[in-house]
Amino acid sequence: MASLDRVRVGIVGCGRIATLQVLGYLDHPHAEVAAVCDLDLERARTCAAEWGAARAYGALDDLLADAAVDAVEILLPHHLHRDATLAALAAGKHVSLQKPPTWTLGDLDELATAARTAGRRLRVMENFMFYPPHVKAQALVRDGAIGEPLSLRLTTGAGRFEDGWHVPAETQRWRMDPALCGGGPTCFDHGYHCFNMARLFITEPVERVHAWIHVNRFGPDAFYDGPALIGWKYAGVPKFGTWEVIASLGMRVRSQYYPSDDRMEIRGSEGLLWVTRCTGRLLDEPALILYRDGETRAWHDLPTDWAESFRAGTHEFIDALRADRQPAQDAAEAAETLRLAIAAHVAACERREVVLTEIGPTTRAALPAA
Ligand SMILES: NC(=O)c1ccc[n+]([C@@H]2O[C@H](COP(=O)([O-])OP(=O)(O)OC[C@H]3O[C@@H](n4cnc5c(N)ncnc54)[C@H](O)[C@@H]3O)[C@@H](O)[C@H]2O)c1
Q1: Pocket of ligand 1 (CB under 6 A)
Q2: Taking burial as the number of CB atoms within 10 A of a residue's CB, which of 7, 46, 272, 336 is the most buried?
Q3: Rounded to whole angstroms, how far apart are CA atoms 140 and 289?
Q4: How far is ligand 1, taken at its centre, from the CA of residue 258, in Å?
């Protein structure tokens, strides 16, 4: 596979998250947004003008026929991920695909095969793994700052929907339809980040999972898949992780983005680590805190804006293409995160512990009945 000197990217889907995902292409010295595409051609034209892209398309096939595009950033609703990725790889483009990559392991395997056949790179973009406090926490764990990591506790606290940035109704609509989203907006969509964290901070593979997911309906077309409590066990060791989802629908969460209070606690044999924010910022507390030997150390000066995770993730993709190496989170890695996400849903639906090897190529992340 030849390396690229300058990465010319095509942005596919100019919706809500494109505004953050594009940042790393705009400020990287060896990248450019060459073209953009959206079903809504006016929106594509507006974004092309803003991002300095020479061409705007209203159809994916037209962008894929553009020889001056080396790689695509796929920012589409989930039901389009598979076909758009297959088409892009067949057209000879490298692909960065948003999480969750596909609905099933079988579909993701198909994408991996297509990438190999085409001789092109495929990575799944999961931005929490690039969030600077998470990156620093991972380095501390790796360097033994808390001894042996023993447990991981994640919480997602949603606040008032009206706080944070504007989310257009059409952006919400496909997430409220499991036939388009592939699962629910919280436990499947947002959940991909948390299930990925489960695998990053404790490196033994996850073996089994148990889950309660309550589906809270607000009307015929709107629901929130929470509260939820999902727990998992790592293979071969007495180590556990949990993810708790709770919506405090009357509480203000300060955020420039989604009003979501994301927190993480990692307990080790010799100390503790807390990451106190990600998408939003609830309290004026340090982003990262380490406890060890009766002392605490706090990091106040890490970049903590959620947008930085997108920027860093995009830079990693560009740098990998330029160095002719696989970017982080290839299809095999993504499959393990997806497997855990699907297993949690099966556990919640069937009200039992699920072993991850039970998840077959066509198993879907169905939601429990309300
Ligand atoms: N990493 C994160 O934290 C994060 C956050 C939000 C969204 N996302 C992911 O980004 C993706 C997009 O989410 P969003 O919130 O921006 O959605 P969105 O609905 O705001 O944007 C999707 C865009 O795709 C366009 N589109 C739809 N069908 C198309 C087609 N066939 N061809 C071309 N354009 C088409 C729509 O017109 C829209 O502009 C999803 O995969 C989502 O999971 C990730």
Answers
A1: 13-18, 37-40, 43, 60, 75-78, 80, 98-99, 127, 170-171, 189
A2: 7
A3: 11
A4: 15
